[in-house]
Amino acid sequence: MAPRNDDSAPAHEDDRDREGQEVREGADDAPPETADAAAAEADTVGADTTGADTAETDPAGGGSAGDERVVAVRRVAAAGRRWRAGQLATCALLLAVALTGGAVAVGAARDGAGAAAAAAPASSAVSPELLAGGSLDASIASLQAHLRAQPKDHDGWATLGLAYVEQARTKGDPSRYPQAEKALARSLRLAPGNDQALAGRAALAAARHDFADALTYADRALKQNPYSERALSSRIDALVELGRYDEASKAADTADARRPGVPVFTRYAYVRELRGDVTAAHRVLEQALSTATSRGDIAYVAAQLGQLSWNQGDYKAALRYYARALAADDSYLPALEGRARAQAASGDTAAAVKGMEFVVSRYPLPAPLVELGELYEARGAAGDEARARDQYALVDAWIALARANGVNADLDTALAAAEHGNKASALHAARAEWARRHTVHTADALAWALHVNGRDKEALPYARQATATGYRNALFLYHRGMIERATGHTGDARTHLAAALKLNPGFSPLGARQARSALEALGAAK
Fold first, then answer.
1. Nearest residue to 394 (alpha-carbon basis) of 171, 112, 91, 97
2. What span, in angstroms and rounded, lies between the C-alpha atoms of 361 and 96?
3. What is the pLDDT of residue 103?
4. Is the pTM of this model over 0.85?
5. Using DSSP, how many helices (H) and how many strands (E) does the chain show?
6. What CA–CA distance (Å, rounded) separates 482 from 518?
């Protein structure tokens, strides 16, 4: 792990020079030493946060930024068909342009990227409701204006950093992570050890899949402020993603006692779901939805309910919840993606393909790319095989981009490559991720990577571990059933393949079909 700067160090006179050099994006070499320069820094940190994103949120819109992003995605897809090992970096750079609508420069792309994490920022100088009011771009612009007038407001810088983490989550834009890091570092130099910035660092670390660091920063923030909602939430996230479920359950109880509210309720529900208590998870999420007032919170919680319903095979309920989420925020990525997945499971392939195409044209991230590729394969129309290959090539480009920016992408690699890429690479990545953290998701990924490499006896204990907590996940059950079939445990294979299809008969465009075929073959062999 790369060494970190000591956030507790006081800000001295010469630190101000370093602040300007670290925070500005593409500015001159001279550091800001005046209030005017610091104000300009607030603008530069937030460059391209608004305007370029406005047109792309409308599926029917003709905004130039959305069009440019679509063109960039298509360029990457075309490049994927002609790939050689030496071209991978170029494809990754094209994907960076696709993700950010041209906002990421080559130099800035080195600073980091990764998957998303939710944020619940607050500031004593800027109202926290500003960031939950429905327009994150406008909120960031307001924060920048505030920091031009008050460049030494450490709470304002912390809030801006958290806003960038949230923007990365909602827009699938990894360029915001380096900006978040710099804004949070500025806050900590102005007020060493302040809990807002430490909590922001926890959220940022989780977004980059550095869950050990996320836990460290959350604990540091809670020492300063035991009631920090952001830190309490990030602590739950980190413990869950480290596979420390008993501790995560206790952390959720503590957070619920100290700061009940939407961020805590949703995490409390997920911890219960991981334990197999779907009823409790649904009840808590409904409670969270009933208390949500901002459009962002409504979209977030409704999408969580949609995902929970989809996991249980209740597609009508899932579509209702996704519709509610999109009524609150029609550009909310998890709801758009979830709606397309529920449409596919319901048999509406045309709507599912159209919806997922829209998602990946704006947010070419691994999960929707794989889903779209499999939808093409399942549909089997003329040209669909090539279209599917394009999506899988884009996944490889995203992984290359993430790794080039220092992000842990091993779980993404293992999941995508096992089915649609280099099987040896999938196993290497799955083993590396398992070495870092033992969760149901990493156990399942390692089990499946071993299976596709023909090592089913090694895979079976991991497949069993993935389903040991009671977590009701049809994909995990399918993987376990297929591994049991390969190892000669035919009775167990029938049980788990049937359970997967009963729980969620449309859990995967290709996997569900293969589960049915395997179950039929097992029945015929009885």
1. 91
2. 13
3. 30
4. no
5. 26, 0
6. 8
